[in-house]
Amino acid sequence: MTSDAGDRLKTLLPESAAARLQSLRLSEGRATLVLDATGLAAGDREAMEASVRQALAGDEAVAEVRVAMMADKSAAAAPEKPAVVQKIIAVGSGKGGVGKSTVATNLAVALARSGRKVGLVDADIYGPSQARLLGTEGQKPVAHDNRLVPVASQWGVPVLSMAHLSDPGQAIAWRGPMASGAVTQLLEGHWDDAEILVVDLPPGTGDIQLTMLQKFKPAGAVIVSTPQDLALMDATRAAELFAKGGVPVIGVVENMAGYICPHCGEVSDPFGAGGAEAAARTMDTAFLGRIPLDIAIRREGDAGTPTAAGEGPQAEAFAALARSIADWLDSR
Ligand SMILES: Nc1ncnc2c1ncn2[C@@H]1O[C@H](COP(=O)(O)OP(=O)(O)OP(=O)(O)O)[C@@H](O)[C@H]1O
Ligand SMILES: [Mg+2]
Hints:
The chain is α/β, with parallel strands linked by helices. The chain has 12 helices and 13 strands.
């Protein structure tokens, strides 16, 4: 390359690229540039490369442009923040009202109690319940860098729910794509510290579930069912949806499993007993345990003081569930 041609090409470069130029060679119509890309984000690198190509394309001596971006290795090896490998646990069911949200809250609280860093996403856009269950009603998340910052709860579990973004009681009439967009925003919040994200899914197998499966690929799914046959058939459908999406089903939790009489403590089985365990066997998945139908669980849920944060056999049932889930995650 004549130095004249080289100097001419250098003057054609945009200032930002010229400042980073390490070398420029022109040989048989091919211009080869090496640029120092230290500290540039992927998008900025691409933009710089494109601007270089455009600047040199007009020169008569240049038939082809090759741009090599070199990053300083020591800088590249030290990212600003160690990335947390975040694992999503989806809590779903085929049928509504079986206690997904209650199980999701208490699972998250029990995991946090056992020392895990957990966040909770309320993916039920149409009927959000996590603000109530975690006692964070009335709190509004702020946005930072265009992403939502989760709301802190008293139980060591930060949370994002549409309930924090809309007024209580206000009907939410999102269309499918908008609802999926809303779920995406909740999941893409600043969850930086959370190693586990528990996601409370809406009932059924609609758009939101699909977005979850396709876009965020949960590490595993927990299926909640009541013991009666109808709920179990729906649970099987939910399990099939996860399996189709390539999301492993961790197992089935039987909720409202035995009624504990608040007066005499006697246990009865209004919805039958043991059905979910049998269904888990049929589905070839694990049975993760029973949570009894206990009026205290409902009351504590409504009061925003999750059962898993307290003491007693019900708190222990959620703690046992959390241990199973944590063990499953650790074994992956
Ligand atoms: N084990 C339990 N004992 C007593 N009440 C319970 C239990 N589990 C859930 N509930 C109550 O049952 C109702 C439904 O529970 P929850 O909202 O968790 O169900 P869900 O499956 O999330 O419902 P949806 O499909 O509407 O989202 C709530 O009032 C809750 O407090
Ligand atoms: Mg719910």
